């Protein structure tokens, strides 16, 4: 007999409020699950760790405190500075993501099994993260490959996960539901980081070297991601595909051919939604700034400001704790001002925070922690409300395809920011000038967002207009 949670239900949110809330709670947990990878691996540990391995490979006899003038061969083709390695890795992985995600979105919309696709990508990414426990010595290239795989699988799973928001929450609920998901994600990331902070700080008493402590922490994020993904996998319900182009031929050939036709149809019709595309353009810009800050913050803190790994973990723990509160606060703010105005306010704060990072004195932890708290305040609100606002602007039945473009901005086209950061650092040798360059992404994104007519965009997409826009 089929398990009740796995049955297919009609498209859209469930009519029964209690059943809808239960499904929303299951949906929240995937934010909790994947945030372990985003924070422990992507934000805190893997950047400094791979940088240290690459530095050792490039400059094996480097004196303590000296800068490495050597290079490592990225993909065996391009020589890059070890300090710029992670920025270039993220750029490579996100270009790959931008190419693959439209296919993922189209398959998800046609399959009617978003829950299964989301979990499959999550478990593949979690396996890559867990395998980072094996990366040590001169194996920086293996770690680089695992990071690329993990990032790609995360983006694919989030494409499907974000599309499911439309199926579990009514229009007037989405700001609240999206904000609670982000908040729960930050709480989960906070809790695991606290544990990992204890592992790194207490490495000696646990019988571990510093490198082993870092690798154990990286693996813990993969196991956390895999384990908690079971909750949405079991608790969500599938919806049948709607508005499928080209019918439903059986077999792989039918799926592939139909997917290509679906993508072509979506590309042709996208011009009918100018406000959606305008918002997406704004999001590409300001989210590039957000993702760049997330990706390079640990490198900036370790190399430019001189903080140790345990101090960086402490600051990110503060970011996670404040972001939990910030996501909920901005969710409440959106109820009265609308999501667009709340996002614009967050961009003003982002600009001020990144400008302050340029002036931050090296080696002084208290200002760095204060800066982290400022980032945390707006981090969750910017991302949660962008997701819920975009969900209002996409046509129903093709939400995964449109969210594939959104995730290309969320995890994919952020290569503009990281590439800019890497190039400025490579040319000038200054991380401070690199971080200052990121301000442009927030300013330009905000200016584009000002031009978006949200109400018209929702109407053009054929969706119900919420009470507050």
Strand content: under 5%
Order of helices and strands: HEEHHHHHHHHHHHHHHHH
Number of domains: 1
CATH second-level architecture: Up-down Bundle
The CATH top-level class label:
Mainly Alpha
Q: Supply Rg.
A: 22 Å
Strand segment tally: 2
Structural class based on helices, strands and sheet pairing: mainly alpha
Stated plainly, the CATH topology is called Growth Hormone, Chain: A
Largest sheet: 2 strands, antiparallel
Strand order of the biggest β-sheet: 1-2
Helix percentage range: over 70%
Assigned CATH superfamily: MFS general substrate transporter like domains
Helix count equals 17
Shape: globular
Mean pLDDT: 86
N→C terminal distance: 44 Å
InterPro entries: Atg22-like (IPR024671), ATG22/LtaA_families (IPR050495), MFS_dom (IPR020846), MFS_trans_sf (IPR036259)
Domain Major facilitator superfamily (MFS) profile: 274-469
Membrane topology: Multi-pass membrane protein
Organism: Aquipuribacter hungaricus
Write a structural description.
The chain is mainly α and 469 residues long. It has one domain (16-460): Growth Hormone, Chain: A (Up-down Bundle). The protein is 75% helix and 1% strand. Strands 1-2 form a two-stranded antiparallel ribbon.
Could you name the key traits of this structure?
transport, 1% strand, 75% helix, single chain, MFS transporter, transmembrane helix, ATG22/LtaA_families, 469 residues, mainly alpha, Growth Hormone, Chain: A, transmembrane, disordered N terminus
